[in-house]
Amino acid sequence: MVTSTAPSHLTARERARRAARGGPSRSVPASLLVPALIAIGFLVLPLVGLLIRAPWSHLGAALSGSDATQALILSLWTASASTAISLVIGVPLAWVLARSSFPGQRLLRALVTLPLVLPPVVGGVALLLAFGRTGFLGQYLDSWFGLTIPFTPIAVVMAETFVAMPFLIITVEGALRSADQGFEEAAATLGAKRMTVFRRVTVPLIAPSLGAGAVLCWARALGEFGATITFAGSFPGQTETMPIAVYYALETNPDAAIALSLVLLVVSVVVLLSLRDHWLRGGSAS
Amino acid sequence: MTHEGSDGLVVDAEVRRGRFLLAVSLMAAPGQVLGLLGPNGAGKSTLLSAVAGLTPVSAGRITLTGQVWDDADAGTFVEASGRPVGFVFQNYRLFPHLTVAENVRFSPRARGMGRRAATSIASHWLDRLRLTDLADRKPDQLSGGQAQRVALARALAGQPALLLLDEPLSALDAGTRLDVQAELKRHLADFAGPCLLVTHDPLEALVLADQLIVLEGGRIVQQGTPAHIARQPGTDYVAKLVGLNLYSGHANGSEVVLNAGGTFVIPDQGRRGDVLVAVRPSAVVVSSQRPQLSSARNTWPAKVAGLTLLADRVRLNLEGQPSALVDVTPAAVAELSLDPGSQVWLTVKATDLEVYAHSERQPA
């Protein structure tokens, strides 16, 4: 015969919660709790370290004492430019991947999302080999137009776009796939041609995902390091973005590095907050 | 059947979707409301979708007043956006990001009308459908009946030559449905072009349609006026919808030998061949013992298999030769102490039998 186990203490609060909402116990077994706490510590403690070591008393001086402003401005406009480019060419590509069918589509999708998993420095090397002064495209740009891309702000934008655009594409493609195409059919019966449907119905309907994808893309572009430093180098004021500035400042001026990191942390938190409705709803993101 | 050269909508086509084949030939004259009645999966929505240009036909053609919209043999196809169609979808499909006014203005704008002209057309239809006060609302702030009116206004604002309604009232609750139905009937009467109305609600079909086509399994199984179809259903599906007992059998002059067992004496002498017999559930009399002297010609034993309480009467499901659904009063159930398993006698007068030829298709 099975006998009941020894009673344990149930707090009045837990008793009320279970009575009101039902469901099993919400307490966490120790064998799960300990590793979970370690994970929390691992993720949070470094950021706490950043806050503790921050030169709060002379934060302004630390920031202005470096090329921080230049780097911040460069980072902001290049990340914004690469996001804009991603919207202009990435959204149509997402539409092509989601709505049309052609041979090799699966391969194309794999290629498009490759930069998501590719080490960014490899992306930088690849860009250099393609658009560098002796690259297979770059040599013509150089000899025909006298255009040299590497180690210019344009190279920064290209490196960031290369790495960040796939984030926008997969977000928008997913939204297009799950969008109710009934609305597009309705628009067609109302006389709307395909571009009108895209502009007036499809895009507005996926606007939340479009926004989320753009923010994600922008955040990824802002943090880009490997591809940028490989393809664009690190000329202060020209191609030295915030992450690169942080990296170099750490050797020469740790206070400035911490201050710059804080700025990026604040930007990231703002991005996260702006995404919270879309991205952080416990897996129920639309 | 061919309708070449007719005014209005002419469909003479097949649409193949996987293993499902829709093969229909029909026409709808200007001003006519042609109801398409049928169970789920009969191909009603597929037909609308083909007429709207959302699905190309796999054989045959679709024309509106001589203009070819789709011709599988010639390879002609007019895209959905190029067909002057007003489509009211089952769940309306109002654009959620646009206001009511913007929804209604969508079609004139999409068809190339200037902003001012489109706005004036839209406000005309908003007014006609009593939506002016709701013009600035978003679709998710509308009741079911209001959303239905917006969908109709949006379809009509495009000045269509043909109106397609896919179960226009099915998303409404029973309370608002009758009001909206009456209003829809008025607007349909004002519409000059042909109208196709898909429904699986017999009442909706009877009230709104001038002509009915019954679709089952991708084929037209019956065609005629609503009154005709309600009185002489051609298939079990329609008989169930209109609440009649339907028997198929073979007439040999004064009797019909039913295919499912049993015999009916019929009033019209001399009828021969395959026939259908329709019997109203209220025309059958239930007795606990075999009636002795009666003018009724048809008497047979049956067993009660089930009882269902309807609004004001009880519907008996009776097994016998033949089986029947019979309506009696609750008092009768009590007096005859009817339970599942009770043995009873059924009687029906020969003059209460509706006997008609069993044909695949009734003349329109």
Q: Would you write up a description of this structure?
A:
The complex is a heterodimer of chains A (286) and B (364). Chain A has helices at 12-21, 30-53, 59-64, 68-99, 105-117, 120-131, 138-145, 153-178, 182-189, 194-205, 207-222, 226-231, 242-252, 254-279. Chain A is globular, with a radius of gyration of 25 Å. Chain A has one domain (71-279): MetI-like fold (Orthogonal Bundle). With 286 residues, chain A is mostly helical. In chain A, 33% of the residues are buried. Chain A contains 14 helices and no strands. By secondary structure, chain B is of the alpha+beta class. Chain B has two domains: 9-238, P-loop containing nucleotide triphosphate hydrolases (Rossmann fold, 3-Layer(aba) Sandwich), CATH 3.40.50.300; 243-357, OB fold (Dihydrolipoamide Acetyltransferase, E2P) (Beta Barrel), CATH 2.40.50.100. Helices cover 25% and strands 34% of the residues of chain B. Chain B has helices at residues 44-52, 100-110, 115-128, 144-157, 174-190, 202-208, 226-231, 236-242, 330-335; strands at 9-17, 20-28, 33-37, 59-64, 67-71, 76-77, 85-88, 162-166, 195-199, 211-216, 219-224, 245-253, 255-258, 263-265, 271-279, 285-287, 298-309, 314-320, 324-328, 343-348, 354-357. In chain B, the strands form four sheets. Chain B has a six-stranded mixed β-sheet, sandwiched between helices. In chain B, helix 2 packs across helix 3 and helix 4 (144-157) packs parallel to helix 5. The interface between A and B is medium-sized, with 18 and 27 residues.
Give the tags:
A: 286 residues; MetI-like fold; 73% helix; globular; disordered C terminus; B: OB fold (Dihydrolipoamide Acetyltransferase, E2P); 5-stranded antiparallel β-sheet; elongated
